[in-house]
TrEMBL record:
The name this protein goes by in its record: Metalloregulator ArsR/SmtB family transcription factor
Organism: Acetobacterium paludosum
CDD domains according to UniProt: HTH_ARSR
The keyword DNA-binding is assigned to this record: yes
Molecular function per GO: DNA binding; DNA-binding transcription factor activity
Endpoints of the signal sequence: none
PANTHER family noted in UniProt: ARSENICAL RESISTANCE OPERON REPRESSOR ARSR-RELATED (PTHR43132:SF2)
Length: 94
């Protein structure tokens, strides 16, 4: 048994952030569709812009997504390969 708890802690933190239905939906949508801005996400999710932005902030802080400014808007994408693998595994039958 590998007792390198730092490695387990990193993965546990990623799972904690992903353990919310809206954040799972955001990450899954970004993986499937590529880059997307907050306005598009909020209309797809039917959530207020502030709520969508708060979820994105948590995903950014965890190193799951990153934003790239394009004029006045920011386009987000998933930047963590481990997360892509996790999401594809979880939703492989859907």
């Amino acid at each position: 048994m590998d007792k390198d708890f730092d490695k387990y802690n990193e993965i546990a933190e990623i799972l904690k952030v992903l353990a919310h239905p809206v954040r799972l939906c955001i990450v899954k949508g970004l993986i499937e569709n590529g880059e997307c801005n907050v306005t598009h996400m909020q209309s797809c999710l039917d959530t207020p812009q502030s709520t969508t932005s708060q979820h994105l902030q948590k995903l950014r802080a965890a190193g799951i997504v990153e934003g790239k400014r394009n004029g006045l808007e920011i386009n987000y994408r998933v930047c963590n390969d481990k997360v892509i693998d996790i999401i594809k595994t979880i939703f492989k039958d859907n």
